Amino acid sequence: MKNRFILHLALILSISVAFSQEHFSGITTSSRGGLLNGYYNPAELSNMNMKFDVNLFNTSINFSNNKLTFNDLLDSENLENKFFSGTEAANVRLDALILGPGVAFKNGNWTYAVSTLANIKANIINVDTQLGDAIQNGSLSNFISQTTISSIDNQRINAATWGEIDLSISRKLIDIARHQINAGATIKLLFPSAYANFSASNLQGTIRNNLGDIELANASAQINLAYSGFLGNDFNNTSNYANFFKQGINGVAFDIGGTYRFKEANSNKYIVSAGLAVKNIGGMSYKDDSNTSIDYNLNVGNFPTLDLNQFESASSLSEIEEILSQPQNAQFFQKTKTSASFKVKLPTTINAYADFKLTSKFYATATINQKVTDDSESDVTTTQNTYSIIPRFVYRQLEIFAPQASNEISGFTSGLGFKIYGFYIGSSSIVTAALNNSKQADIYLGLRFGI
What we know:
By secondary structure, the protein is mainly beta. It has helices at 4-15, 35-40, 70-75, 79-83, 129-137, 317-325, 327-330, 430-434; strands at residues 52-65, 90-107, 110-127, 144-150, 154-176, 179-210, 213-228, 251-263, 270-286, 292-300, 306-307, 333-339, 342-345, 349-357, 362-371, 386-395, 398-401, 404-407, 411-414, 416-420, 423-427, 440-450. It is elongated, with a radius of gyration of 24 Å.
């Protein structure tokens, strides 16, 4: 049996591999400084080496999962079976970031910046593999089977798009002898575009397969169905993803950070450059005319049971909502809350890092990106925790970097990239992807110039 609703988004994320999680790994801690460093920590703007820094175009597209290797994706055979294999819950994280035109201006101890951004996030979160396998394949080759589901997780299919205009300010607070301390902040004006969430929390029940007739019995769960904009109607139509600023300003978020540098004697060059930032404190409200947010209590007995085959052709959350409202299904789905607008929290993270000068041409950076939001909450977009070591070679306007990372979802990755003057390109997983054993694929590139 092919259930398009449950797996459709998962396979879009998996097969569209052009789409990992720490954006611009290696460039955001480059000794050049500038807007990209300020994106990572606003206090870094005070470490700019030029008076003006101008972003023309920068993009980072990341895909991570815990089931499918790069080789699996290239083969593209039996992806559904592989994705729902084993006992570990299935997870996917897709994260695309576009940094549009932006400018930073340094004036004495102060630095100011304006940036434009567009975000796309789509996630499969903690989906029970037995549930996915039973619905997708009817327990593989069994004509008659029964699968018991018992999960305390909040299993989610979630996606969000939004635009930003970021206003940043940074100040050099202390610059004495070999010590320099900066502080900075960014206010983000958020333009929500589209959102979709379908989740089932504390799902308990039995899935029965009787010659292809799939039914759910003796089941209970808390269900959330929410959507806004085009993601409620058709998450296949990628042309809609350009409408990042459609709903106007409907949210605010903040970044705050600080940096410390220990410098060489009688020089502005550093031996150690470290920073700490808290990013994405805040959220946004979706207020599109199509908005829907409904909480249900699912309660199904031994008879009658919920027919899962009826979801087979559903390709959008609005279709799912219509199916749930039909008389034969409404008895199982008791509405507990309905809202025409809802707020979504951004994935708040803590970024901590230190860049060490090893020789005149070799540096090494250690970074920690730790989220503080809870993936189990239905009103939160999410990311993944990442820890990395980034060796870097610097010679005049050339930098070559090789990120080595441990990611919460995809495990270990190894990458490579370079910067020459204002152009850069790289990937934090290209080495492991080339070996066909990576569960992450990503690329980032951009063009900027300084004066």
